[in-house]
Amino acid sequence: MKITERILVDLCRKMNADKLKRWDSGLKIERRGDEYFVIRLFRKPQNGRPRCLDLYRGSSREIKAFCDGFAHAAELVNSASAE
User: Fold this and answer.
1) pTM for this structure?
2) Boundaries of domain holding 55
3) From 78's CA, which of 17, 21, 63, 69 has a CA 20 to 30 Å away?
4) Across the chain, where does the E strand assignment appear?
C-alpha cells in the first residue's frame, strides 16, 4: 500500500485527538521537498521553550513507522499514568 501525505496527516489528526489529547503537545506532518517531517507542536508554549521541534524526517513509510511507534509509546505512558 502506498503511504500518501493524506494518510500521514489523518494518522496525526487521530493521534492528537485520542492518544495525545491530554499531552502538552501534538504532532504535525509536513512535507519539504522529497522528505516528510514530524513536528512536535506545544499547545501552550512557555517562555524559554520553542513552540515546535522537528522530531524526525524521512520517507513516507519511515514517517508512518515513527508515528505508529510514537502512538504505542503514548498509549503506554497514558496507561501508566492512569494507574
Assistant:
1) 0.84
2) 5-82
3) 63
4) 25-32, 35-42, 52-58
